[in-house]
Every structure is written in structure tokens, then in C-alpha cells.
Amino acid sequence: MFAHLFIRETIGLGGKRESVPDGPLTLAGERDISRVTITLGRLGATDIFDNNAYAQDPHSQFMNWAMITNLSWDFPADGVGYTTGIVAELYQPRWAVRYGFFQVPIVQNSFTADDQILLIPPSGGDGPIFRAWGMVTEFERRYANVHSGTIRVLSFVNRANSIGYREATPLLKADGPEADLSSAFAYRRKYGFGLNWDQKITDDVGIFSRLGWNNGQVQGWMYDDSNWTASFGTSVKGTSWRRTADAFGLAYVVSGASRANQEFLEAGGADILDGDGALTYGSEKVMEAYYNFAIWKGVHLTPDYEFVDNPAFNRDRGPVSVFGFRLHWQY
Predict the structure, then answer these.
(1) Which helix (H) or strand (E) holds 166?
(2) Given this model, what pLDDT does residue 155 score?
């Protein structure tokens, strides 16, 4: 499959200009700070929405999903995080507002229509464009009193031919995990909200947080099964110990399921990531720490440790320790 193939048009509105660095999704140059930007094609919704200075990029920052994206936002995507959509953005010197409309897969956590180009044999596809979709709106406020920071408020609505927990749970209680749930499917909406904050404390220290909630009545469709989440963390550059290219990160996140979701899982239901036939409910808690060590110019090695308590919202599972290493070579 392929990840990105899009057209982007930037319309300058005049006034001050800013430099644009060369990057995976940008071309080096200059642009008006006040501008309208329209992006159309295959992309990741998280390329544009729910960004955070200290918890965004798994190439160099935290690795856990819970740290780099709001878990309560079931963002439109295929099974690996990309889909087709259009995004319109209005930027001003201190704020920005953006809106996106995206295709969603016809089958839960599966391939979209644009995946079929390279997929043999074909599998999955998009839902009907006017009946299955994902929409998201975000307002971003940037400020710089003593040190700079950003607050982002996100809202979303998804629609897909999906299971409603309240409709499926009685069927599972009557017939067990092998129950026929076809009658529980219908075109349903999942909606929710998110708050995203990053704050520079000094030139070398920053903190961040995310809060999220969704209505918790419809199964996860594309990303995650959580219905609420809260995270807090910090990122520290290595300047004080004479390692200016190094960085240390530490974060904690807690997430949970709605009562309707709990009853669905207790009855033997299964979602994208959760469900093994029984449930002793407890909110999932994750702590992650990493140290990004600069070995050579453009080469970084990152040891990473995660501690997961009550994985998949189940007190009968875990706790789990996860050890990882990341080698990143950029040239």
C-alpha cells in the first residue's frame, strides 16, 4: 500500500511571512502566516489534526499510541492509518481553524478503496460516501506570554454501518460469543471531543496533556476502543548534561470504557483491540519513558520502556512491561 498522495494549495492572505522547513510532507520555502490551505488526496488525519510539540512523532518521541494521539478520537483511517479526504485550514498569527472530511472503510479496521490499487486480491473498500464518513473540526490557539504554548480543541463525528453496544449486548447474553450480531448493525454516529495542550517551560523543557471523550455507544471502527482518556507528560532536552541532541520523555495516560462498552465486553463481545470473552473492568493505565540518544549526525538510538496496568480494561490481565529499542537514521 502507499501512505500519501495528495495535492495541497496554499492561498496567501498577505502580511508577515514565515519560513517552511523541508520535511516529509512539506517543501522548503516561505509562506504567508495568514493563509488558507486546502489538502486533497490520500493522507493521515493525524498529519494535520491533534498535533503536539512533545507527543506527536513516533520516529523521535513516544512510541505508544496513547501518547501520540487522542485515544477517544476514532480517527478516519484504514488498518494502518491512512485514507482519502479533504482538509481546509485557515491560519492567522495567533490561531487556526481546520475542518476535514474523510472516507472510512466499509469493514471495521480494514482496507479502504485506495488500498485496492496495490492489494491482490482486493479486500475491503470505502463505505458509501454519503452514508459512511468521518468529519473533524479543530480550533488552535497559540500564545507566547513568557514561554510559548498551544491549546487545541477538537470535535469529531463518524458514521459507519457498525454495531451498537446496547443492541448487541442482549444477543450476546442470550446466545454467547457466537451470537449472530447482524441485526445489531446499522448506520450509527460516534461523536466526541478532545483537548490538546503543549507548553514550553524553558528552552529545554516542555510539558503536554490530552483529554478526550466520546459518546461510547458504538463500537470502535478504525483506531481504538477507548471512550475516555487523559494523559500528561514531559520532554527534556539534554542540554543541562551537555548532550544537546539528546531528549528524555516521560508520560502517563489513563483510558477507559463507557458503561455500555463494558457490558458489551462482559457479555463476550469483541472490538478492535479489546474483548476475550470476559471482563473484570478497570481503566487501562500506561506509563512510558524513553531516552533519545544521538549516536551520530542523523542517527539516533532510543531505549524505551512501557508499563501497562489493566490492559484492554481488564484487571485479570497484566500488568505488562514492554521493552523496546528504536534506531532512527535520517539523511
Answers:
(1) helix 165-175
(2) 98
